[in-house]
Write a structure and sequence with these properties.
322 residues; alpha/beta; six-stranded mixed β-sheet; five-stranded mixed β-sheet; 11 strands; 19% strand
Length: 322
């Protein structure tokens, strides 16, 4: 019995040493950074900026691999099934990990349990904008107009279950109003039809809306985060009118589940240093993307909280993205 116990303890110790040795040698070959969306978007630009910096600091090539499709599930599932050795990583988002598991009846992965959170990298300014034809200059006036004109306002979204859709549903509940949902196949047509006054309100990333706000084609009423964005300090939060209203959109780095702790710590440190570089911050500021810094534990807490919160709302409302 005691000999079996000694053999078991020896095996555990050897496994521990193997993990430490692997972490000490990492990286000794190129690293793949999977982006589960098509090239050109803010996530892709963030990933390529990160890859450029990590290639310099780690001395190994960091290759961006765009695996788009199924609302981010194809690329995310690829990483979920990868070996947890630090060579296959994912740039995921609030939608892929906190929303998709509740929205889609047949998910290939679990948003929380099948991944190792490494670093919350950035927050995206999420805006509430309206067509200037709507006679409102702030959230309070918009709510009053919506209550006085039931059924006359329509909001656009990139499709059922998108962050645009969920933001608007949460706003309707908090404000006590009803609007018509007009889903599109993607964010670009949703923005264009709001500019054209085919729809009157849109909750969307500032990367899509702020250029139209600058030209006067859309009117910015507020941001949906819990606090004002340092990139838009004069824009009020929706919560300043509707206390408790919040929907934050984040991007983060993940590995497969069971990524060794030593690698998680190393990756978190390297990612935080890379994102702190002035050229990266300048590039992201121009896109309305706010770089953030934190520990893996802090990111894990955000992930679990958002998955619980948004999953509950999605199930309560019966929202599906088939």
């Amino acid at each position: 019995m005691f000999s079996r116990l000694r053999r078991g303890l020896t095996l555990l110790a050897l496994c521990g040493f193997a993990h430490l040795a692997a972490a000490a040698e990492w990286p000794d070959r190129p690293i793949t950074l999977v982006v589960p969306w098509a090239p050109g978007g803010s996530t892709d630009i963030l990933a390529r900026s990160l890859a450029e910096q990590l290639t310099k600091s780690l001395g190994q090539a960091v290759i961006v691999d765009n695996r788009a499709g199924a609302s981010g599930n194809i690329g995310s599932n690829f990483v979920a099934k990868a070996k947890p050795d630090g060579y296959t990583l994912l740039i995921g988002s609030m939608s892929t990990h906190a929303m998709n598991p509740a929205l889609m009846p047949a998910m290939p992965f679990r948003g929380v349990e099948d991944f190792t959170p490494i670093a919350q990298m950035a927050n995206v300014i999420n805006t509430m904008v309206i067509n200037p034809a709507v006679p409102a200059t702030n959230v309070k006036e918009f709510i009053a107009y919506a209550k006085a004109n039931p059924g006359k306002l329509a909001y656009a979204s990139a499709g059922p279950g998108s962050t645009n859709h969920l933001s608007a549903v949460l706003f309707e509940r908090a404000a006590g109003i009803q609007m018509l949902h007009v889903p599109y196949k993607g964010g670009a047509p949703a923005v264009l039809d709001t500019v054209a006054n085919q729809t009157q309100v849109l909750f969307s990333a500032g990367t899509q809306t702020l250029p139209h706000v600058k030209t006067g084609k859309l009117r910015l009423l507020g941001v949906t985060e819990a606090r004002r964005s340092p990139l838009l300090p004069d824009a009020p939060t929706v919560a300043e009118t509707l206390p408790g209203f919040e929907l934050g959109v984040w991007y983060g780095a993940f590995g497969p589940a069971n990524l060794p702790k030593e690698l998680v710590t190393r990756l978190n440190d390297e990612i935080n240093k890379a994102l702190a570089q002035p050229e990266v911050r300048t590039r992201m500021d121009a896109l309305g993307v706010e770089i953030v810094k934190g520990t893996p534990q802090q990111f894990a807490k955000v992930l679990r909280s958002d998955a619980d919160r948004y999953g509950k709302v999605i199930r309560e409302l019966g929202i599906k993205n088939e």
